[in-house]
Design brief:
heterodimer, A: 276 residues, mainly alpha, B: 126 residues, alpha+beta, Heat Shock Protein 90, 5-stranded antiparallel beta sheet, 3 helices, 33% helix, 29% strand, globular
């Protein structure tokens, strides 16, 4: 575990009633941590070995998650923040210099926080979306799904407006907002999203980043969550529409739209700044 | 009578949103479906990402509905080396892959004003 986890536990119990116990636990944790640090160092020396890299990223996963949670509640879905934090963690692992004598957790914290801040800066406008728009966004999301069922095709903006009672401008505004906001109740993403489809796609999808045009971002694509990779594949190799992908994966079209925009901007960043 | 819509914005990432809003509005006017409009928006994003890299002062987007299609012409007022635009091997680039996946036609050109990314999308009204 990381020092930060311990700090987190402390704030959970601010009463101070159990100080003795806590100190005892700390000693234990210290010993454990020393052991873990040695293990971590050994792993760093094995880099760029892929297994060592994977193990390191798993070892420090709690740190990334902790930092992501620190930025939660500012209008960005936790899922996105965790993803940004994880990318930051991988970056830190790849750049960390064992010989410098800095603790990895210190170095990684700086890198991950930097990435999270950049994420917020990049979409600065999105953070102050008024509640009215958030609600409109949820309404539009639901209506798109409903209308798709009724019409057997993606609805037009006019049709969505008619059903929701929102003006064309409001629907379009909601569409734009959808890219920044997750409506958990509608979309609650889970690892099981479209698991059957993902299973079925198999080997072709596994290696599609090696196909022409995508090789420059192959490493970034491999770091993507499985579902995001599948969406890219279905959209750009199978030529499915967002609505068709939504149906395949059992999530809303708005969710597909959001994941797609986000994934593309991540990849874009990777191309323009390969070190990022 | 023309139904072209032209809008010019500072070549900065935070203004791309405005171009997306404009292209969405034109799409809605043409009665395009929701996911088709989203394709347009992502295409504008991608075109702008390419053009912003050319250090332009402004970006001008012209949206032209024509004959069951909509043509989106995005141009940067940058002076670029004719050898650097269209970027070498552009058809193998990620940007091309993305745009070609979203639009029916993709063009990277050098106009008198500067570098251009143009896409054409079938309207396919509902």
């Amino acid at each position: 575990m990381t020092p930060i986890d311990k700090a987190g536990a402390r704030t959970d119990d601010p009463s101070g009633d159990s100080v003795d116990l806590e100190e005892a636990a700390e000693l234990d944790v210290d010993a454990e941590r020393a052991e873990e640090e040695a293990h971590g160092l050994a792993l760093f020396r094995r880099l760029p070995d892929a297994d060592a890299r994977a193990e390191l990223s798993q070892l420090y996963q709690p740190l990334a998650e902790y930092l992501a949670r620190r930025f939660y509640g500012r209008g960005e879905p936790l899922e996105d923040l965790t993803q940004v934090a994880n990318l930051g963690l991988l970056k830190a692992i790849d750049r960390f210099d064992v010989e410098r004598g800095v603790k990895f957790s210190t170095y990684a914290t700086a890198t991950v926080v930097g990435e999270l801040k950049r994420h917020f800066r990049d979409k600065g406008w999105a953070l102050r979306v008024p509640r009215r728009l958030q609600e409109a966004g949820m309404k539009v999301g639901r209506t798109v799904t409903d209308l798709y069922q009724d019409l057997g095709r993606a609805p037009t903006v006019a049709e969505i407006g008619k059903r929701t009672g929102l003006s064309e401008e409001e629907v379009l505004e909601a569409m734009e907002t959808a890219h920044a906001y997750t409506t958990q109740s509608l979309d609650a993403p889970t690892d099981e999203d479209g698991a059957a489809t993902i299973e079925r796609l198999g080997a072709e999808e596994e290696s599609f980043e090696l196909l022409e045009g995508w090789t420059s971002v192959a490493p970034a694509i491999r770091e993507l969550p499985r579902r995001e990779r599948t969406i890219l594949y279905l959209r750009f190799f199978r030529g499915l529409t967002q609505t068709q992908i939504a149906e395949e994966l059992g999530i809303s079209q708005m969710h597909v739209s959001r994941l797609l925009s986000r994934t593309l901007s991540q990849l874009r960043r990777q191309v323009s700044d390969p070190d990022a | 009578m023309t139904s072209d819509v032209t809008v010019s914005v500072p070549a900065r990432p935070d203004f791309v949103r405005l171009l997306r809003a404009v292209v969405s509005s034109v799409g809605a006017r043409l009665d395009m479906t929701y996911d088709r409009i989203d394709d347009l928006r992502i295409a504008v994003d991608e075109a702008c990402a390419q053009l912003l890299a050319t250090a332009a002062g402004s970006i001008t987007m012209r949206v032209t509905p024509a004959d069951g299609r909509v043509i989106v012409n995005v141009c940067a007022d940058a002076e670029v080396d004719p050898d650097a635009w269209p970027p070498p091997d552009v058809e193998e680039s990620l940007a091309w892959r993305i745009l070609a996946g979203l639009a029916d036609e993709v063009h990277f050109e050098l106009s008198d004003e500067g570098p251009v990314v143009r896409v054409e999308v079938q309207v396919q009204p509902a």
